[in-house]
Amino acid sequence: MTGRRLGLLLVFCGAIFLEGIDVAMLNVALPAVRADLGMSTGSLSWVVTAYVLGYGGFMLLGGRAADLLGRRRMFLFWLTVFVLFSGLGGLADAGWTLIAARFVTGVSAAFMTPAGLAVITTGFAEGAQRNRALLVYAGTAAAGFSLGLVTGGLLTGLSWRWVFFAPVLLAGAILPAAALLIPREERPARAGGGRFDLAGAVTSTAAALLLVLAVVRVGQPDAKAGVTVAAAVAGLALLAVFVLVERRSAEPLVRLGLLRSGPLVRANTGAMLFAGSFFGFQFVVTLYLQELRGWSPLQTGLALLAVGVDAVLAPTLTPRLVERFGTARVVLGGFCLAAVGYALFLPVGPDWTYPMMFPTMILTGLAFALSYGPLTIAATEGVAQEEQGLAGGLLNTSFQFGAALGLSIVVAVNAGAAAGGAAGAGAGGAGTDGLRAALVVPVAAVALGAVVTGFGLRRETRRRRPGGPSRAA
To answer: Are the C-beta atoms of residues 125 and 95 closer than 8 Å to each other?
Structure first.
């Protein structure tokens, strides 16, 4: 790997680290935000929901915009927007200002992330070189999230506003390096006289926004069922309209033939299930440690730090495993480890010590190392250069939608089970009943993901026998 390519990889690793640490730090700081700005529980939830809406709603459009308008241009512009609105969030003196800032920050991440991923997948030759770059990238993303939990606890002790200002300082180093190292490119020529699929862009974005909104509202205690159902129905209807538009468009925003790729569909399905299980599990653990056990945000972050072992293993161990066993087998191993880890937490009680929790934490980190990066490889492998942004957008949409769906289902199951058990148990008993019931969701999600991955492995083994190991997930 040349010095320029290494520098380029470090730039995009810095950007994905920035995104991960931004989200994790805010999660820890939410109680302090509510106290300072006088926000209700319902309005506070919109601080998180607004970011998820912007990110998930615009990700598909962001990925295709990178292909059509230029990856360098999209990355630099939206990284700048990300920095500006993160700073605005730190200056907010009212809840609505913070919510608006988080929405725009999510939109900017939706354009910035697939553009950065596409530069990596087109800048490194497909195979071992690209795989190693993607696994380093994945490990950095995990490090941002795990370290963000600890950093958020420390910064919140000073002021919750530093949770927003810290990413601005980090981006101050990333932006000039990105402008210097990302190669300039010609805007890709488009068939059909340079027309842009405006109808496809509008319908896909509106459908994604409504579907993500419906999913997020499932877990909100004050959400009205009628509004949630209406959003879901409208989102599905717009999705159907989008498919019709793309079929008739001379220059579609999304080439539907891309979705006929079995490995790509399996990788995105696996990404959705893995993200749903992980974020659902993280919510349960955070609730258990902070609300049931009374641990501080910093103590909770330190307890979850073991999950960050992925940052070390993803760029070191995982590439060797992928080369030896193939992507599908490694992903399957990650899903199986996650299922075992989450299942070990099922008997959780109000008096568990940390050594009793540690096996689950370390297995979760190992599962992340074996699954996240290889899923990225599988979702972008074999895709044409001019569609790498779209492939990255699809993958990140799957991760975001899965995270929102998993979190919402876990919240709903926990609330329902806790309410049902409250009549016959004390507060602690009802709380653990709800958490145990909610933990079934991540176990079921990774088990289903293992089935999806295993099915793909069987198909690839049959097709490629007697050749080497399969590389598709």
So the answer is: no
Residue 368 in this model has a pLDDT that exceeds 80: yes
**Which structure tokens are listed for 176?**
């000039």
Q: What does the H/E/C string look like for 355-418?
A: HHHHHHHHHHHHHHHHHHHHHHHHHHCCCCHHHHHHHHHHHHHHHHHHHHHHHHHHHHHHHHHH
Q: Work out the number of other CB atoms within 10 angstroms of the CB of residue 447.
A: 17
Take residue 156 and report the two structure tokens written for it.
């919140």
User: pLDDT (tens digit, 9 = 90+) per residue, 48-58?
Assistant: 778 888 888 88
The first and second tokens of residue 396, run together, are 């990140």
* Total residue count of the chain as it appears in this document: 473
- Can you tell me whether residue 128 is helix, strand or coil? helix
Closest CA to 443 of 292, 341, 295: 341
Do 472 and 327 meet the contact criterion of CB atoms below 8 Å apart? yes
Cis peptide before 31 (omega within 30 of 0): no
Using the predicted structure, report yes or no on whether residue 221 has a pLDDT greater than 70: no
- CA dist 86 and 161 (Å) reads 10
In this prediction, residue 469 has a pLDDT band, given cuts at 50, 70 and 90, of very low
Position 315 confidence tier, pLDDT thresholds 50, 70, 90: confident
Q: 257 near 318, Cβ under 8 Å?
A: no
CA-CA distance, 253 to 73, in Å (whole number)?
19
Q: What is the CA radius of gyration of the chain?
A: 21
- According to DSSP, residue 199 is labeled H
Q: Which helix (H) or strand (E) holds 70?
A: none
The burial class, CB within 10 Å (0-12 / 13-18 / 19+), for 176 is exposed
pLDDT for the residue 190: 52
Q: What is the pTM of this model?
A: 0.82
How many C-beta atoms surround the C-beta of residue 179 within 10 A? 13
What distance separates the 2 farthest-apart alpha carbons in the chain? Answer: 69
d(CA 147, CA 150): 5
Output b/e per residue, 10-25; b: 16+ Cβ within 10 A. Answer: bbbbbbbbbbbbbbbb
pLDDT of residue 193: 45
CA distance 432 to 426: 10
Dihedral, CA atoms, 285, 290, 293, 296, nearest 10 degrees? Answer: 120
460 has pLDDT over 60: no
